[in-house]
């Protein structure tokens, strides 16, 4: 079933608010802040419809709604507007990664650290040998989703489970440049609230993937173009 324009605007408003706050979003909030020009009753009815269609869900302890992985995918594919990196950010990233003639493993460690700083998330850089370099572990501790020790422990333990992590990152098919994965789809306990953004890079002599791990409400309009820029820089890089 195709969504109406009003439903799309409402879904976008709910998801953007959820990305900002990490809290279930109620109809009152949408009425006050989204400027949809419809009554509170209409907003409530449309949120019920979006829930029935599988785009939103209602946590047991809240009257508000949060997006499902289906809703987030629809947002990323059809509703969100990517935010271009500022020239200042582009220059800063480029300068950070421009050290000449550094060994490949050092470059990947450095790339993971800069990507983690830029996205305020857990960042990974891998090579074709499945070596994995991680940075930004402390970043996820600031996010409400990771106040649950079981979730945090599961995510951080992935860094020691190279085979499992490689399977997750390997879901980026050869014809895809960037892919978003949601924990709900992975079948791993405690990963349900998590989101993964994976993108590939292809250097003259090396190839691999970059990844960002955070909550399912990652700020995709910023994270995706940021990762694309990192991929472009690496793909033009020559290392010893």
Automatic annotation (TrEMBL):
Top-rank taxon of the source lineage equals: Bacteria
* This protein's record includes keyword Transport: no
Keywords of the record, alphabetical order, are: Repressor, Stress response, Transcription, Transcription regulation
Q: Where is the Winged helix-turn-helix transcription repressor HrcA DNA-binding domain?
A: 2-71
Q: Locate the Heat-inducible transcription repressor HrcA C-terminal domain: which residues? A: 90-224
Query: Quick check: keyword Cytoplasm in the entry?
Result: no
A Gene Ontology biological process in which this protein takes part is: negative regulation of DNA-templated transcription
Q: Name one GO molecular function term.
A: DNA binding
In which family does this protein belong, per the annotation? Belongs to the HrcA family.
| Function comment | Negative regulator of class I heat shock genes (grpE-dnaK-dnaJ and groELS operons). Prevents heat-shock induction of these operons.
Query: Can you name this protein?
Result: Heat-inducible transcription repressor HrcA
Q: Which species is this UniProt entry from?
A: Candidatus Curtissbacteria bacterium RIFCSPHIGHO2_01_FULL_41_11
């Amino acid at each position: 079933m195709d969504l109406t324009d009003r439903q799309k605007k409402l879904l976008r408003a709910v998801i953007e608010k959820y990305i900002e706050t990490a809290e279930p979003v109620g109809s009152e909030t949408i009425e006050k802040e989204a400027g949809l020009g419809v009554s509170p009753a209409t907003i409530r009815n449309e949120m019920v419809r979006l829930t029935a269609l599988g785009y939103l869900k209602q946590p047991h302890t809240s009257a508000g709604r949060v997006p499902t992985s289906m809703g987030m995918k629809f947002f990323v594919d059809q509703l969100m507007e990517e935010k271009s990196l500022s020239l200042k950010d582009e220059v800063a990233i480029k300068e950070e990664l421009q050290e000449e003639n550094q060994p490949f493993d050092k470059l990947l460690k450095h790339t993971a650290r800069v990507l983690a700083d830029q996205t305020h998330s857990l960042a990974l850089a891998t090579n074709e040998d499945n070596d994995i370099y991680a940075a930004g572990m402390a970043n996820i501790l600031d996010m409400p989703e990771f106040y649950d020790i079981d979730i945090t422990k599961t995510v951080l333990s992935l860094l020691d489970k190279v085979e499992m992590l490689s399977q997750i990152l390997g879901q980026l098919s050869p014809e895809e440049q960037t892919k978003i994965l949601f924990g709900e789809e992975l079948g791993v306990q405690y990963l349900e609230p998590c989101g993964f953004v994976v993108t590939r890079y292809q250097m003259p002599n090396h190839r691999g993937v970059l990844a960002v791990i955070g909550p399912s409400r990652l700020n995709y309009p910023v994270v995706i173009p940021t990762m694309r820029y990192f991929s472009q820089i690496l793909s033009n890089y020559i290392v010893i």
